[in-house]
């Protein structure tokens, strides 16, 4: 499956594409709805084929959390700038944001149970308890010292 097809599928699931100019409007709308924003920084799917898998999982996660999540895809041309803003170090990455706070990052494709567990912990954490560092989950099977 080509990533453009996956992006079209995501728009059918109500996910929009955001860029540096529109991301704050999207984040504000998610906050107003009482939801946590989930942004997908996919990267180049030719370089990071997992991007397609994460793109397929994202709408399923939104459905599983019954309106507690609002999702969007970061436009390719703005992934670098927004990645710096939110602390993205690898792609693909899901970025969870609420009330201007980056709650956490989940990198690469994960098992369903990892997504559910980590997202639940991130969105149920009492507000005001800011994490010192945005947590990135990288698959444990990665070799030590390998640059991602």
SSE arrangement:
Blueprint: H1 3-12, E1 16-18, H2 23-32, E2 36-41, H3 50-64, E3 69-74, H4 79-86, E4 93-98, E5 101-107, H5 112-124, E6 136-137
Parallel strand pairs: 1-3, 2-3, 5-6
Antiparallel strand pairs: 2-4, 4-5
Helix pairs in contact: 1-3
Distance between the termini: 24 Å
Global mean pLDDT: 84
Provide the helix percentage: 25-40%
DSSP summary: helix tally: 5
Task: Give structural notes.
The radius of gyration is 14 Å and the shape is globular. It has helices at residues 3-12, 23-32, 50-64, 79-86, 112-124; strands spanning 16-18, 36-41, 69-74, 93-98, 101-107, 136-137. 38% of the residues lie in helices and 20% in strands. The protein is built from five helices and six strands. The chain has one domain: Glutaredoxin. It has a six-stranded mixed beta sheet with strand order 1-3-2-4-5-6, with helices on both faces. The chain has 148 residues and is of the alpha/beta class. Helix 1 (3-12) runs parallel beside helix 3. The longest helix has 15 residues, at 50-64. This is Hydrogenase expression/formation protein. It holds the Pfam family HyaE. Belongs to the HupG/HyaE family.
Key attributes of the depicted protein:
6-stranded mixed β-sheet; Glutaredoxin; alpha/beta; 38% helix; 148 residues; 5 helices
Task: Give a short synopsis of this structure.
This protein has five helices and six strands. By secondary structure, the chain is of the alpha/beta class.
